[in-house]
Amino acid sequence: MTPTPPFPQGPAEASKKDSRPVNRCDHLGSHPFSDTQDGLFRAYLSPAHAATCKQVALWMHEAGMATRTDTAGNLIGRYEGQTPGAPALLIGSHLDSVRNAGRYDGTLGVMLGIEVVAHLAAQGERLPFAIEVIGFGDEEGSRFPASMLTSRAVAGTLDALPLGTVDASGTTLHDVLHQNGLDPARYLEAAYKPEQVVGYLEAHIEQGPVLEAAGLGVGVVTAIAAQYRFKVSIQGVAGHAGTMPMSLRKDALAAAAQAMVAIERIGANGPPDLVATVGQLHVGPGASNVVPGQTTFSLDIRAGTAQVRDQATTQICEALQNIADERGVGLSIELQNDLPATPCNPALTACLAASVTRITGQAAHHLVSGAGHDAMVMAALTPVCMLFLRCHQGISHNPAEAVRHDDAHTAFLVMLDFIRAFATTTAHKPTEFSA
Ligand SMILES: [Zn+2]
Fold first, then answer.
1. Smaller CB count within 10 Å for the chain: N or C?
2. Is the pTM of this model over 0.85?
3. Separation of 242 CA from ligand 1 center, angstroms?
4. What's the Rg (C-alpha) of the chain?
């Protein structure tokens, strides 16, 4: 097992608490819980995923839960409420990972859910609703080119399964399901009915630097960002780098450079939840002695609401058109992906924020998640809320991902407080929380 990466000293270090959920993530951070010997890679329905589910099921059982694997390969632990068979508050996140992953992305949310139930069970405390802790099998889409397959199955939003899709070794999803004892024909039976659940809570590392910069251990998510992805192409005229005078050039790369500066400026001048990114650039013909004739680049625009995203998109498109007109180059902007924003449920979010204030003594910091999460999918089934934990320098999808034990302990206390508050104020009026 790799040692926990160093973490900056802060005031909270003074109240060092050893967090079992963090220790368990560390335990799950290497072979046999990883498919690779070096670093962590836990792919959906891989041997490492199976080993992980086996271990996590043991912990769920120890915590007082009955465990099962659903027809999509999700691991679910159930802690009954005061009345057996009552609808459940779902607490979940994912157990799969990207390649060369950190140990806390997803897994920590599942471990925190188990910890909360372990505490309730140890006290003999039963609630007006059951609690189900879900370890989703596929969130990252790191094995098959389809992400959040298993939460979509649970939320009932998966219409058909891409059974013919293949992993890196050429094995179809159909065959992988069979190898794992899962019947493809029954996959969609993992869906819950809305009346079986009272809400969904997910704790997740922030995967960004905002909480750390604010000196806060936890924050409350208001929405998962709306996203647009475009492919932008600029058509100039290629020419000899030695003979083409500067005044006669139609340089596609210089135009793209100017476009990127404009994109950055518009992103930076918007509200804090607006981000605009160029992450890929191709230059044609791509020779050192040729004036670039053609460029294509990616454009990713995200914001907490579609309104902010769309406004920025309009500004960016206008700016790019002006640049193209001034330079006499061709421009095309092609929409490739449009994801709507997922607002977290306002009432549940207010309840979670009140818990943060009670536990930390500070007003809850609200933030938008720029990254997608299972909660975004689960919102189609039931009201959702999300708690973010500070992570070191915002580093994620990287072995250097790190969380503080005391922050995980704070998150545990907040979740416990939230569940108790939710039980007293809303358990008998579930319609109050409908989205
Ligand atoms: Zn995640």
1. N
2. yes
3. 51
4. 24
Q: How far is the CA of 77 from the centre of ligand 1 (A)?
A: 19
Name the residue type at position 304.
G
Q: What is the pLDDT along the chain (435 residues), one digit of tens a residue?
A: 444 444 444 444 434 569 999 999 999 999 999 999 999 999 999 999 999 999 999 999 999 999 999 999 999 999 999 999 999 999 999 999 999 999 999 999 999 999 999 999 999 999 999 999 999 999 999 999 888 999 999 999 998 899 999 999 999 999 999 999 999 999 999 999 999 999 999 999 999 999 999 999 999 999 999 999 999 999 999 999 999 999 999 999 999 999 999 999 999 999 999 999 999 999 999 999 999 999 999 999 999 999 999 999 999 999 999 999 999 999 999 999 898 999 999 999 999 999 999 999 999 999 999 999 999 999 999 999 999 999 999 999 999 999 999 999 999 999 999 999 999 875 445 554 443
Distance 180 CA to ligand 1 centre (A): 23
Ligand 1 centroid distance, CA of 97 (Å): 8
The closest alpha carbon to 202, from 254, 136, 279, belongs to 136
In whole angstroms, give the CA distance from residue 67 to residue 292. 60
Q: How far, in Å, is the centroid of ligand 1 from the Cα of 325?
A: 42
**How far does the centroid of ligand 1 lie from the alpha carbon of residue 223, in Å?**
15
Give the side-chain half-sphere CA count within 13 A for 251. 18
**Token reading at 66:** 């009955």
The residue type at 280: Q
